């Protein structure tokens, strides 16, 4: 204001000397909405909270309790609309002072309650940026609210719970001047960033005897865990799962304790770390509480709400069983009770728990059946549970659903869609349980039931599948889903390779039935099948492989019909392998079926060879991915036990005339490149001491291992296909192989000595292990090992020298071929020069009579020189066959050959004939020779 006055005086001084001008009014201040009186809402006057804090803490006034209460009440009235964020620090200092004194001086309880009520209102911000500036202060203030649970007063604890509920669920009113309440998103954010969740979980131990406060705390934790993963992680950090689950069945007439506890656990599953939660529940106390809660809900409660809560408890128990395989379900008796509840509908029991229990057809009871099957499958990973499942006749209960679906059902029973869904679910559970419970499987006559169901699946009976469940995907309107899981169950049982099971399946006619299914139900082209049909065909081929692998009689049952079926699958178009539908599995199982079901039986082997099976296997070997080479070469190697197979192998020709020997050498080189064997550009040996060792094996070095462990050199035999290629060449021979290039010959020299090199590699590894273990062999053994090492190295030197000779011979042959090529080029030029000379002489004879006479004489001399008895020419009876006065130098005959002297024909322009033109028109010159 003073500056404005000085400026005004200066303007007056200037105006006294300057000519008069029109005065322009200036605005020297700003008129705000407050000056105009148009601000809406109440006005919040500042309060000096530091003075109040000093009043409470100053030694001279700390005993003035009535004055303290009076001042605090005035402060509460002042902040009735909310607390500004900038005053939170001082406010919570005051609150903590009161909290420390309330236990000794109860008069502070009411101010504390009033301040906590103020905290339930969203905090006030003066500027938009206050949410960023004061965020950390708000976070620490919320944390302080949780620490106030230490106050041993029910009203204070109850008010803290109410404050936190309102703070995260209710928005504030904007009825203050210059202040706005924080948003609910901001409130939830500061709740997440604070440690209020941890504090409230720990506070559960303080309110065990106060059911009302405990329910309030659970309500808050239920709300916090519902929308925030951070809150769930904080709660799990202080073992909220164990704290809550261990008190599930505390006395609670209202029933809220169990409901809210289960809801919190469910939120922790959805938003938190499942493994952490499961590990917290993995103890006797929690599993016992889950068992008691589930049994109570199962037997005593019948409302819709109770059934849902029962299913939620079972899901939580399933999570614990899945994450912790050693959870004490057996020790607590929970596994036995679950088995009882899962089987009492199908297997009659006299247990008191299920004597008057019956599951209805409503959705919750239907889901309960599936959940019971599911948790028992998970529990079966523990071997101690298998005996309990066997005693409870679980397989018998599940096999009761393995039957043909009916068209009509009783209204009191499961509907058609429900029966189909639980049928498929039961079969999926049997796929896991049957391999672990083979005795029960045989007791239930599982193979007979499954083959009968399979016969119904391919039979003419009409059935429209609903395909509602996960297991019924792709089977709507057909029996495909039932057939899919029936074959999967047979596959899981056959994969155990139990001879009793396999013999039982074979006795039931499974081999012919499965071949018939492949020949009738899947006769269309493979590229028209979907993923489920491809999987079913793969399952059938795998089952046939398991049945026929070790038994000659079953291979004879497989017979010609089975070989025809396998040949049809071996002709699968390899372009379908990358379709993503499972054709690669189908092709692998086809090769495996050909190997297990055909090889070893002379009848099927001969028919397989007759149907060009070896050619098909080599066709696949040429184009299939690398991960299929091992099984194909293995099958071919076993087929070579039949002496007829080698001729088929040698007769095979692939793309561009590739032979089998060339293809095998190429696969050998590819395998060595992958494992990192050192070779030069021609494929010859570079490391004479380790001619077969790859880079990975070399990097690992020599590791001392016990005698029961396989060393690196031995493991290498099974990790690649080189040993099988060597064995295959042993059957074919190493000489007189067709279609080999120089690289193939070089590679073949290594293949021929593979066994020697591998033996040397094993001995080198043995010597290295002895050196690492500081073991010195006796002198004869030492000399023997040195002699073996030298012999192997000498053989490597011989092989390397042979390879160099082959390379040099090839180079020499290349030089010879090059010279022959150039000689051929020179001969071509010589013929061209001779043709030019002949034409020149021809022109000379036709244009010069003297040349013609000389040529004639030369011809006669040549004729005379060719005759054997030239003396006879002078005899009296000599008859000259040559024509006199013949002016030609060719041998005459009946035909006349006309040679044109013009090299280019029809090069002259065509002249139209006109009588007036001169007859001597220039025309191309022609010579005629007789």
Automatic annotation (TrEMBL):
All copies of domain Cilia- and flagella-associated protein 69 ARM repeats, residue ranges: 47-765
Coiled coil: none
SUPFAM superfamilies assigned: ARM repeat (SSF48371)
PANTHER family (UniProt xref): CILIA- AND FLAGELLA-ASSOCIATED PROTEIN 69 (PTHR14716:SF0)
GO CC terms, sorted: non-motile cilium; sperm midpiece
Top-level taxon of origin: Eukaryota
One of the protein's GO biological processes: positive regulation of flagellated sperm motility
Database matches in Gene3D superfamilies: Leucine-rich Repeat Variant (1.25.10.10)
Organism: Biomphalaria pfeifferi (Bloodfluke planorb)
InterPro entries: ARM-like, ARM-type_fold, CFA69, CFA69_ARM_dom
Keywords, in A-Z order: Cell projection, Cilium, Flagellum
Protein name: Cilia- and flagella-associated protein 69-like isoform X2
